[in-house]
Amino acid sequence: MWDQVQETVNYIKAKTGFTPEYGVILGSGLGSFTDDIQIEFTLPYTEIPNFPVSTVQGHKGALVFGIIGNKKVVAMQGRFHFYEGYDMKQVTFPVRVMKYLGVTKLVVSNASGGVNPSYKVGSIVLIKDHINMMPEHPLRGKNDERFGPRFVNMSEPYNRSMIVKAKEIAQELNIEVHDGVYLGLQGPTFETLAEYKMVKALGADCVGMSTVPEVIVARHMELECFGLSVITDMGDEENIEEVNHEEVLKAAQTAEPHVRNLIKTLIEKY
pLDDT (tens digit, 9 = 90+) per residue, 213-268? Predict the structure, then answer.
């Protein structure tokens, strides 16, 4: 893994000569955030050695390098999921690469199903904590101390001061935000009504199929993380029949202008 990461980093550095401070992972329907970046380089995943390739509709599949405000950023247009058939080391490989390109702060976005009754479709949730119920752990196996410690402290997976800053920015921009706990499941099926009830009973506010492994690996390497979820469906009796991928993308795209504005301003100001 170490050698693969260094090979990929060396390739990207030779191509771009770029040292980003922020990494951004764009979830379902949020790919056009790159319109806010003053783009300097774009590398399709297919050209990058050791990189997996995204297979999901709504995930474009490129690394975008550029500037937001005076900050250097690398954005992933399209992420990798365990349900696509990748193992967790492949899913989180780009986070490892970002770290050694120079990234110190990671912003992750996703679409999720809401179980908190104060949410509605289109709600923006700042993730304050997560519950990992994925069937494989990204740090399983022999630990390479060059990346980080064997046992990782997860007391603050999502950086509290970034959350405080994001709430201030949301107030200034008149964007309604909630905060909540995100629960990660494997997918690719949407949850049954009984599973949504389980998610709620376990103390989570929303549920999705990504983000958790990426944040675990980021924390392994001491990156500061900020997570944001767009509620694209509600897991209750009234709404569950309407859940499908097209509706999820549509809901994510409706919230997208606010999400873009929030992330862009956070990167500029934090």
Answer: 999 999 999 999 999 999 999 998 888 877 788 888 888 888 999 999 999 999 99
Distance CA 257, CA 247 (A): 17
Residue with token string 């050694």: 100
Query: Given the structure tokens 């950086």, which residue do they identify?
Result: 159
Condensed to tens digits (0 to 9), the pLDDT of residues 36-70 reads: 999 999 999 999 999 987 666 655 789 999 999 99
Strand partners, 8: none
Distance from the Cα of residue 159 to its chain's centroid: 14
First to last CA, the chain: 31
Which strand (E) or helix (H) includes residue 129?
Answer: strand 124-132
Indicate the pTM of the whole model: 0.95
Omega cis (within 30) before 157? no
Domain ranges of the chain: 2-269
Nearest to 213 by CA among 266, 146, 147, 157: 157
Q: Does the structural domain 2-269 have CATH classification 3.90.180.10?
A: no
